[in-house]
Amino acid sequence: MVPGLLIGASLMLFVHLWCRFKGLGKNDGDDRLGVGAASRDAGWALLMPVVILGGIYGGIFTPTEASVVAVFYALVVGMVIHRELKIADIAKVLRKSVISSAVIMFIIANAGLFAFLITRAGIPDAIGMWLTSVLESPGWFLLGVNAALFVIGMFIETSAAIIVLAPILVPVAIHFGVDPVHFGIIMVVNLAMGMITPPFGVNLFAACTVAKISLDRIVGHLLPFVLVIMGCLALITYLPSISLSLRDAVFAKPPVVEPVIGPSIGPQ
Fold first, then answer.
1. pLDDT tens digits, residue range 249-258?
2. Could you give the C-alpha distances from 136 to 12, 170, 172, 264, 268, in angstroms and in order?
3. What residues does each domain of the chain span?
C-alpha cells in the first residue's frame, strides 16, 4: 500500500506543479459541480470498485467473473439510474469495445510471442546469472536488478518475467540480506513501468486507443512521468521501510517475555 500511495501521490503532485508551471487547466473548474455534489451524482458509479474488489476478496466471484459483473453493473447504472445509455447505444458500445480489445489483445499476443522467443534463447537466465556473479554488494545488486528489469519489462510480459526471473534473483537477494517482500515490490514496480514504455507498453497502447491519438504524440510527454516513477522506485529500493513498515506494524509478533523466577519463599 505505501509504495502505491507514494507513486500515486508523486504523480498527482507532478501533474499539479506541471499545470501551474505551464498555465494549464485554469478554467477547468468553470461551470462544474462542487466536490460534494459531484460525489453524490457519481456515487453509484464510484461503488463499482467496491463491488468488484469486495466480490473478489470476499470469494463471491473470480477476477475474470468480476469483469462480467462490472459490465452488468455499468449497464444498470447507465440505463436505469443515470439514464444516459439507451438500448440503441449498446451496439455502438459493443463495437468500440471489440475494436479496443482487439488492438490490446493483438499487442499482448505479439508481446507473448516475443517473450517466448527471448526466454527460449536464454536471455533472462543469462542476465540473472550475470547479475549474481558480477555485482557483489547489496546496493550494486539492487541497482543492476532495477536496470535489468526496466529493460526486460519493455519487451517481456510481466507474468512471464516474474516466472522466469524470480527463482533466479530472489535467492541472491536473500543472500545479500534483502527482504523477499521488499524485493518483490521492487520487481513489481519495475515491471509495471514496462506497461507504459514502448515498444510493448500495453497500458500505453490502451491509453492511445481511448484518447484516439497516435503513439508518437504521447511518447514525448511520457518521459517526465516515467522519471517521477523512477525517482519513487529509487526511494522504494534504498529505503526498505517504505515497503516493510506497514507489514511489520500489522504482522509483527509481540516480544516473548520470559517469566522472572526469583528465590523461592517458603517455610524455613
1. 888 655 544 5
2. 37, 15, 10, 56, 66
3. 43-85, 93-249
